[in-house]
Write a structure and sequence with these properties.
It is built from 5 helices and 6 strands. Strands 1, 2, 3, 4, 5 and 6 form a 6-stranded antiparallel β-sheet that branches. It has one domain: Thiol Ester Dehydrase, Chain A (Roll), CATH 3.10.129. Strand 4 and strand 5 form a beta hairpin. Helices cover 29% and strands 30% of the residues. By secondary structure, the chain is of the alpha+beta class.
């Protein structure tokens, strides 16, 4: 009996078939990125209390710093709840997707140098910038390339609240 393809393999094949038929994708292919290229993403997002509470609950993070206003008022240097930093990381990368990797990424390979120099609070509006830091061929997957992005998130006061270096395995342009 032959093994059936995984759901991931089927999705990948579907995306490739659409691309070969000329379907447009929002993201860029490996060959379309240039080291030093900068994206100032148009999407901005105001973080809500619901975002923080739901995300903390969904990820089983019961830290009082995220959930307990009274605790934060009396025991935290911030005097109020701080948005879960993993939510901030996900939001920062998510905002970048439409301009960079939507429909052209194979996989995230990892995040490095993740930093949160300032806290995010309920009501903060986040904007994101992305730079292309490095491009390299994939030795093990000749139909893909690796792009290293540097993402930076800023609040409404233009304070840097998060940054990371992200490596993504990208599709090459179809031939």
């Amino acid at each position: 009996m032959s093994a059936s393809p995984s759901a991931g393999a089927l999705r990948y094949a579907t995306v490739l078939a659409g691309i070969r038929r000329g379907a447009k994708v929002a993201g860029l292919y490996f060959e379309e990125f240039v080291v030093g290229q900068k994206f100032v993403h148009a999407i901005r997002r105001t973080v809500t209390e619901a975002d923080n509470v739901f995300f903390s609950a969904l990820t089983h993070n019961p830290a009082a710093l995220h959930l307990d206003e009274e605790y934060c008022r009396t025991h935290s240097e911030f005097g109020r709840r701080v948005v879960n930093s993993v939510f901030t990381l996900g939001l920062m990368v998510g905002i970048s997707v439409g301009d960079t990797t939507l429909g052209t990424t194979v996989a995230n390979l990892g995040w490095d140098e993740v930093r949160f120099p300032k806290p995010v609070f309920h009501g903060d509006t986040i904007r994101v910038e992305t730079d292309v830091h490095e491009l390299r061929e994939s030795r093990s997957r000749p139909h893909n390339g690796i792009v290293v992005f540097i993402h930076r998130a800023f609040n409404q006061r233009d304070e840097l609240v998060a940054s990371c270096k992200r490596s993504a395995l990208m599709l090459r342009k179809p031939t």
